[in-house]
Amino acid sequence: MLKDIRNNYTQYSLDETDLDNNPLELFRKWMKEAIEHGQAEPTAMTLATCENGFPDTRIVLLKEVSDKGFVFFTNYLSAKGKQIEKNNKVSLNFFWPALERQVRIKGITEKLNEKESVAYFHSRPRESQIGAWASRQSAPIPDRDTLEQQYLLFQEKYRDSIIEKPDYWGGYVVLPVVIEFWQGRPNRLHDRFRYTMEHSAWTIKRLSP
Known about the structure:
The chain is built from five helices and nine strands, in the order αββββαββαααβββ. It is α+β, with helices and mostly antiparallel strands.
């Protein structure tokens, strides 16, 4: 039964002495540990947007933790791109069950500059570059064949040339204003610390689980 599924988290703890004044540094440390411990898809994060009062979520991949924040790439004309255009306040969530850890983030989204988006686009596998042209992300299509035919069309178009980045494709950076670190502990007495940006500085509070 679903109601009987539960885990008692016992591996690690999170104490005040483990914290860094800059939450991005603690996040980098946790990401490194998630990768080293073999966590499946460690860069996968839930991105929550909100339009007309309805939250919308999906999984996207983190591609960089810059000094400004959390970077990901997508089609600007996708559902999430249009929602971000109307409301650039978003939330991110990472869950690393191998380490019994979670990180929750609230932030403001900004587009990366064109140079950064072009550089990342050309670092992607060629097949993924073609896919960015073939798929009008979130737009209805009649069948699978339509998508595959579009892929073949752009594959032929760029057969002997560099693939240009579509104007409608690029990166975002989420500038965090709140970051919460959650470490699973026994008996549901988890460790939680919330960083909040206030007057250009981070404040830290321990939260009750």
